[in-house]
Structure prediction request, 961 residues.
Amino acid sequence: MAEPTLEVRNLRTHFFTRAGVVKAVDDVSFTVERGKVLGLVGESGSGKSVTGFSIIGLVDPPGRIAGGQILFKGRDLARISEEEMRSLRGNRIAMIFQDPMMTLNPVLRIDTQMIETVQAHRKCSNEEARQRARDTLGMVGIPSPDERLKSYPHQFSGGMRQRVAIAIALLHEPELIIADEPTTALDVTIQGQILAEVQKLAATTGTSLIWITHDLSVVAGLADDIAVMYAGRIVEKGAVSEVLDTPLHPYTAGLIGSVPSRNKRGEPLRQIPGMTPSLLNLPPGCAFRSRCPRAAEPCMAEPAMEQILPGREVRCFLPLTGTTEQAA
Amino acid sequence: MSDATVNGAAPPAPRKDKVETPFQRFVSEFAESKIAVGGLIVFTAIALVAIFAPWIAPQDPYDLAQLDIMDGRQEPGTTGGAGFTFWLGTDDQGRDMMSGIMYGLRISLMVGAGSALIACVVGASLGLLAAYAGKKTDTVIMRLVDLQLSFPSILVALMILAFLGKGIMNVVIALVIVEWAYYARTVRGTALVERRREYIEAAQCLALPTYRILFRHLLPNCLPPLIVVATMQVARAIALEATLSFLGLGVPITEPSLGLLIANGYEYMLSGKYWISFYPGIALLITIVSINLVGDQLRDVLNPRLKK
Amino acid sequence: MTVYLVRRLIQALFVVLAMSVIVFVGVFAIGDPVEILISPDADQIERERAVQALGLDLPLWHQYLVFLGNALQGDLGRSFVFNEPALKLILQRMPATLELAFGAMFLSILIGLPLGLYAGLRPNAPASKAIMAGSILGFSLPTFWVGLMLIMVFAVQLGWLPSTGRGDTGALFGLQWSFLTVDGLAHMAMPALNLALFKISLVIRLTRAGVRETMLMDYVKFARAKGLSPARVTFVHVFKNILIPVVTVVGLELGSTIAFSVVTESVFAWPGMGKLIIDSINVLDRPVIVAYLMIIVLMFITINLIVDLTYSMLDPRVRLETKGT
Prediction:
């Protein structure tokens, strides 16, 4: 198989706060092949966004990458200089943010914000850059791009703004796009349109995608692989169809159980009891222990990521092996 | 007070597992800023000097019998006819500047703290009233506050002193009129939030008298922001009084505050006799900065939004 | 909008009227104007004639109406000291004050913005901490004392700058301005810096707070994620967002700058309105005091009105921007 677009190995991103070290990302490893979509799933605070920002090198102090490797086409992004990283950002690796209302600068026109991106990585005239911006806007389905280029962000709807943000990400046809919950803030219908659009673009351009979300139904329709994060660690990963059909980790099972549409009408909604633990002062052992229906004596120790079925890895001493049983 | 700060400065961060009274926590949080503790110590020292000035000053600068015109405009460090050294020099009347500053501090602190206290009582009462009574009362009081705050303090003070003329009492009145609006606005803001809380409703259900609800229930909960504003306003009042006195509109020549001392030295400065203006200015500066340092830290500690 | 405008205008008019009563009663009702107006050598008959001529025997409300009537015709009385119309005296001094105030505001932006920007971008750098400590000093230090220190250092010790007065002036629009000559600029430097001190601190704080707030915005992170150079992120994405509010606030401070020039003008003997009012208060030149107070009240009410109207006009756009859609 060809070299993967991205290979993250034992990534650790920690925040060194005055109250102590917050291990936001702790020993995370995954691989994204060319043209594939990885769904990175977890609750808020599970470290999935920080993973995304670590890859693109935008972790703000007091956070920093404390260990591990981020191999982008063989180059370790955790080791390269800020200047090298900047030449990759927005160029070979792009990112789309969660809230389209906040990602575009309110006092700059759309053309300014697109042209500056083009010219940050390619020497070209304003007119060429504008042409590129116009083409890309058309690609993401924005009608009359010429007019739109002269507008300010507040003249756009949320869905339109997210399309503009996606267009900006696509300007340099990157190898990897990190999408941090880009559809969460949008209406369901707009969400569907954007998902379809992105899927199509990824397929035609061979771009790899990391799709960060807490919404399993989005992952189910979009991703090839899935990695489930809990308390800064990946607890389960594998192909989407297999993981969603036969989850191995009790947490994954719980997540699937909490999706309303998967429950039978009239049945009480399943839920995961309790709350995500604070990443500061995480107790030893399995982090999910206190909320896990299967927790037992061995869970007092730290579980390791193990391959227990072909192509399936899980971080659990008592996985739901081979059964369709779900956490009650 | 100084005892508490000494104790508080020793342990680093407060541990959560230890049981602390709110006051202890307040003290230890305050002590987290070394510079604020320094400010508090300096200010305490200044206040002590001001209070005990008649006993510790080498000279009573307003007892003409003790002054010798021959000692006039002596440089710092010279020894005068009376046999003691003028560490900070003398003014044109042969007054020891150090004694003058100690006495001047008395007037400055008295005017500053006094006006802040009166303004606090007036402003806080009106603010409470506005928040509790609401409707017309609120509108009238807050309109007045808005109107007054739209004019700079110096202008309001200038206007009032133009009407009233010089004098310590008049300066205090002017400062009170300038400052009350800040207290009223602060207290009203907090009180509006607090009065929606359940405990006020409970007190009202018990049919407690209004003044009791206002002063025993509502006011204590508005205290933290009030204390912060009061601290800052004392510093502002002292600075404003000094400015007014410098302009010749403030305290009379017989009771010189720091501002007037500085004004007296103004004409001598151009001939290089800097100390007559310089040292009172330094005293004023240290006083104001130390109060502001304490106030800054108080704001950080007492502001619930900044709590970690 | 029109309704709002009319209502605000009526309100402003009412405030002006109320202030005129306060000023008139305040200045004229306290103390005995006869004492100051008439020479102590004058005999009884001369006194009475003067009292009648000045209308001082009329009841206070009547005097006020006369004052108001005259004021509406632009007559705010004659200065006892200069024996000239008070209004004319003040208007003569106004350019000097305005020049000083604008100079100070210009300096506050020129010095405050870069310092605030630096302190906001590197909040933990030693230089930033020094800048912030300096801004606390700028807020705490009494303006007049700083003025004295400036004179002591730059005029007396170093002899670089003149200590008092306006220096040579040049003519523009039929008025005399100091900023048109080198000598005038040299005279203006210290007073303008002195008056700017407080505003510099204000601009530093506003800019720093704005930068720190803006730096946390998603659009700044997005701009970085686009691979823009740090300079472009700072000077285009961050700076443009904070520039508008900072400049607006400084503009709003014009009124208070003019009011505080009273202090600076006294320190540097700058012949503006502020110096005039202090001198007038000290010699109880009441018509000038009244005229000054009325003019400055009018000025403030106008500024406040303009501010309110500007905000209400900006409001729909602001609302549109924050709510989107």
Summary: Confidence is low (pLDDT under 50) at residues 315-325 of chain C. Chain C is about 75% helix and 0% strand. The longest helix of chain C spans residues 286-323.
